[in-house]
Write a sequence for this structure.
């Protein structure tokens, strides 16, 4: 999804919400928070308010009519009911006519993970909102005493003791799962080369081979940029041709919080990217009015490739390669390799464009396991 589309969708969500939630989102904008974060929060607030209306917990017909006084009347039991509603939401069904038990098991695992992440995201968004409302102060006039007093917008924070849940409680379990999806050492180079020239050997139909040949140079370049720089999916989607700098071996990206940054690119992957940019116009019928770096064609018209299409593409190639992964795990692969080389979390966070080192601490777990393996085999 392009930045413009994301902004448009966020604004539509924003308009549907009551004013006290709009004020909180405006507060987040000023911090600032990325448009993607704001959009996800706005969706979660609308989901929660819609549930309140549907369950007749609030006596209004539309979510925009909900007031702060309605929130005052909520209690912990209602939030637990909402968590139950989220946990029981229908999972995505298997593809029709699929008789592959392994594929079905994989889909089931992914659906379960998506559901857990949805619950976590919903509760996290609500905890953030309730904390703001209970901390933000307002001046109130008492007609009986004729005096002003200060009180919080929301007198009690019922979300304070609600666990977000929805994900594995053990960080070690989460890190082990991530580790299985990383592309480290020669795996990364082999994977890009597989997409560039090897995947076609697995195809049996002319139609599939034609589609692969049409996009293989672009697809290899996308993976090369992910593994060569560690940028986020949203950053890659929104890059333009003009953002690439071959002399400095970097690409300009807009990080979270709308700050601009130069993401360094490993020279080992640059040839894949340059081959694609050299052929981009011819491959996708693009003229100079199309700024997007990575393109697809719709009815023979070039358009910016969307994040969902890139996720599906990576899932397809990595599953065929034998190690299913995602754009985010490719980013973790870069972080892990960078920590191996530097043993410095600050450097890793700067490479990945992160605001603090807390998000990079996962890499110490992976490297410590490798160190244990070295010590175990040191004298054998």
């Amino acid at each position: 999804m392009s930045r413009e589309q994301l902004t448009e969708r966020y604004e539509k969500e924003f308009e549907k919400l009551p004013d006290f939630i709009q004020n909180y989102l405006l507060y987040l904008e000023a911090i600032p928070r990325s448009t993607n974060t704001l959009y996800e929060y706005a969706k979660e607030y609308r989901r929660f308010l819609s549930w309140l209306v549907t369950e007749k917990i609030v006596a209004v017909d539309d979510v925009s009519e909900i007031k702060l006084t309605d929130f005052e009347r909520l209690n912990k039991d209602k939030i637990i009911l909402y968590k139950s509603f989220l946990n029981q939401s229908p999972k995505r069904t298997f593809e029709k006519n699929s008789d592959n038990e392994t594929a079905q098991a994989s889909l089931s695992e992914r659906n379960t993970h998506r559901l857990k992440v949805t619950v976590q995201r919903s509760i996290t968004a609500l905890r953030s909102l309730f904390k703001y409302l209970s901390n933000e102060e307002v001046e109130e006039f008492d007609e009986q005493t004729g005096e002003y007093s200060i009180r919080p917008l929301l007198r009690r924070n019922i979300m304070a003791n609600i666990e977000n849940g929805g994900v594995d409680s053990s960080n070690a379990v989460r890190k082990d799962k991530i580790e299985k999806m990383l592309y480290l050492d020669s795996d990364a180079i082999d994977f890009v080369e597989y997409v560039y020239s090897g995947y076609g050997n697995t195809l049996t139909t002319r139609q599939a081979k034609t589609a692969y040949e049409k996009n293989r140079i672009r697809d290899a370049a996308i993976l090369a940029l992910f593994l060569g720089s560690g940028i986020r999916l949203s950053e890659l989607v929104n890059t333009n041709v003009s953002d690439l700098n071959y002399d400095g071996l970097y690409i300009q990206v807009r990080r979270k919080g709308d700050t601009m940054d130069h993401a360094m690119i490993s020279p080992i992957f640059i040839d894949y990217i340059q081959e694609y940019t050299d052929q981009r116009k011819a491959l996708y019928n693009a003229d100079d009015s199309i700024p997007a770096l990575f393109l697809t064609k719709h009815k023979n018209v070039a358009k910016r490739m969307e994040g969902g299409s890139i996720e599906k593409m990576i899932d397809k190639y990595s599953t065929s390669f034998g190690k299913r992964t995602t754009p985010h795990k490719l980013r973790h692969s870069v972080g892990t390799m960078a920590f191996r080389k530097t043993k410095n979390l600050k450097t890793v966070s700067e490479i990945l464009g992160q605001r603090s080192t807390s998000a990079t601490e996962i890499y110490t777990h992976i490297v410590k396991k490798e160190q244990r393996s070295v010590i175990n085999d040191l004298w054998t």
Remarks:
- The longest strand covers residues 137-142.
- The first helix runs from residue 3 to 16.
- Residues 3-166 form one domain.
- The chain has a mean pLDDT of 85.
